[in-house]
Amino acid sequence: MPPHNPTPAGPSQRQLRVGEIVRHALSDILSRGAIADPDLDGVIITVPEVRMSPDLKQATVLVMPLGGRDADRVLAGLERSRKWLRGQIARRVDLRFAPEIRFRLDTRYDDDDQINALLRTPSVRQDIEGGDRED
């Protein structure tokens, strides 16, 4: 019998499912432009992912304003609207507790660009093309 692993490698199916439901609710709220905050007025915000804690009481919301412009202002506006957004999620999503919301910028695409740029540098390219040969 294999040993029991008490800590799974990634989020559970339940966390993923609830995260996706919260993501859809937030995307809908943000797309309607219902938030009365000057830093969010007329800004298109994408919500690519919501990561739920194992107890589903915390939601880390990855956001990105269209074109990545004014990201700090947008994050500040979302933080100011956090309680209102939590209430809206509670009305739309059937959970025992409305999750606390934390907003983070989605930097995955920037990270990808940095990695690709690094892979194109001459020294790394030489290592990649050189293979596993020893000098």
Automatic annotation (TrEMBL):
Gene3D superfamilies recorded: 3.30.300.20
Top-rank taxon: Bacteria
One GO term under biological process is: maturation of SSU-rRNA
What keywords were assigned to this record? Cytoplasm, Ribosome biogenesis
**Gene name for this UniProt entry:** rbfA
Question: Quick check: keyword Transport in the entry?
Answer: no
Extract the HAMAP family matched here: RbfA
What is the protein name given in its UniProt record?
A: Ribosome-binding factor A
Cellular component terms (Gene Ontology): cytosol
InterPro entries per the UniProt record, alphabetical: KH_dom-like_a/b, RbfA, RbfA_dom_sf, Ribosome-bd_factorA_CS
Q: Which Pfam families match?
A: RBFA (PF02033)
Subunit-level organization: Monomer. Binds 30S ribosomal subunits, but not 50S ribosomal subunits or 70S ribosomes.
